[in-house]
Design a protein that fits this description.
51% of the residues are buried. The protein is 75% helix and 0% strand. The chain has one domain (2-292). It is built from twelve helices and no strands. The longest helix has 30 residues, at 2-31. It is an all-alpha fold and 301 residues long. Helix 5 (104-116) crosses helix 6 (124-141).
Length: 301
Amino acid sequence: MAAASRMSGIGLAVAAVALLSGVDALAKSLGMALSSFQVVFLRYAVSALFLALFVLVFVRRWPRRGFMKAHMLRGFLAAVTASLFFYGLAGMPLLMALALAMTAPIYMAMLGALVFGERPGRFVLAALVLAVSGSALIVAAKGSGFAGPPVTLPVIAAGLAAPLAYAFTAIAMKKSSADDHPVTLSLMQTAFAALFCLPMAVVLWQTPAAALTWQIGLIGLCGALGFICLISALARIPASLYAVIDYSALVWAGFYGFAFFGEIPAWPTLIGGALIVIACVLTARDQRRPEELRTKSGLEP
């Protein structure tokens, strides 16, 4: 029975990574026709609708009173993070964007030491050096070896800022956590993120072509289902096992990038991505406390 539960948890974890990586691919596709703010708004608004339906039918636990400020903070920071990430994603290859995004846990470890006085583990400094080296290799490549023109400096800046913004988001969430069901928390975060993105989305609004309608619906559905699969997986397998499976996001990014955008990664990007993964593994060895279990709700909310 335990073995069956573990296998189902692994299957759900793989599905979660595949779905959330699919969100990235859809965001890149939509970003070619719409502004980043509009893509973020549509992604969150549609996901909020699906999550609200799920909460109504299955969870039946609505947000507790007294936590609206915390929900608003989560939503605002998620909107900032996703706007940076989607802007970078629209102008760089999928694998490159995701490799840079995976530096977030290292930033989180450093900020945890500064904000909470947590003592960095012995591997954190080495992880930081590896992550910076990997990022430098990826940035130096500037998209060379991929289909399309080299990546511009503003796009690179957004790709580097997105994981840092996510790290601040995670620290803020740790300081102001609300005791609600995880899916309910995600519903409130997505709803407020959509609300915060709405003004800029309206200013830069471009009427989506009819051919994009299915992509808009699918990006919201994949985001909602991906998070639900993630929560279900973590109920069956240890977070440390999920973290290992989560590294397969780079494989999914490479697959989606090649299949849908004709992207073929250059060797600096591959080596840089490998260094970042090693850095994340080293950081994870120092952070195995139960309260620090990773949830994927910031860069790919």
